[in-house]
Amino acid sequence: KAGVTQTPRYLIKTRGQQVTLSCSPISGHRSVSWYQQTPGQGLQFLFEYFSETQRNKGNFPGRFSGRQFSNSRSEMNVSTLELGDSALYLCASSQPPSARGYEQYFGPGTRLTVT
Amino acid sequence: AQKITQTQPGMFVQEKEAVTLDCTYDTSDQSYGLFWYKQPSSGEMIFLIYQGSYDEQNATEGRYSLNFQKARKSANLVISASQLGDSAMYFCAMREGTQGAQKLVFGQGTRLTINP
Lengths: 115, 116
Fold this sequence. Notes:
The complex is a heterodimer of chains A (115) and B (116). Chain A has no helices and eleven strands. Chain A is mainly beta and 115 residues long. Chain A is globular. Chain B is mostly beta strands and 116 residues long. Chain B contains no helices and twelve strands. Chain B has strands at 3-5, 10-14, 19-21, 24-26, 33-39, 46-52, 60-61, 64-69, 74-79, 88-96, 103-106, 110-115. In chain B, the strands form three sheets. In chain B, strands 2, 5, 6, 10, 11 and 12 form a six-stranded mixed β-sheet that branches. In chain B, strands 3-9-8-7 form a four-stranded antiparallel β-sheet, with no helix packed on it. Chain B is globular, with a radius of gyration of 14 Å. The termini of chain B are far apart. Chain A binds chain B through residues 31, 33, 35, 42-45, 48, 50, 55-56, 58, 88, 90, 92, 94, 97, 100-109, 111, and chain B through 33, 35, 37, 42-47, 50, 52, 91, 93, 95, 97, 99-109.
């Protein structure tokens, strides 16, 4: 079974631009979550989508948005980029609960650099 | 709000020794889940082990075990017979939110270095 894939892997943008990141979950997984990882703030939850609906949202400004498509693929968008948006953006998909609980499987991440 | 604390920013261990990575948590929820993830330098988060709050036995996955002490609110990861490939960042995390909602709250991580 293929793992979670994220594209692109690396991205360089300038301040003020916008960016769209893509995530394809593991086949059969309907929940997709996004996290931002920075050296200063660590790993922070952005939002979660399930069946095309945002089910949970973290404490980020409205410049950060996302969506999920009917095939469970998800995109996140950051508008009006700021230097502080430079981070590793991780996507995770999860399966229905099992004896091992709600495991989240992460993709390799997209490293965004804003200059 | 839930909180995860990892008090060891870095640890250095000799190969083949056992290592314990500390994690304490704070929550008022009765039902919660605790996770450990490994993050190599490549960046990908690798799931290691899960412990549910109602699980009576400590979770084990191969060389990984979770020392769950509910009353003390601790969920330490134990790696037996460490290997050079275990060198990485390790994150403890807690599932927050209603059942089904997938939001993980992470600790700051511990950088583990295995010396030959």
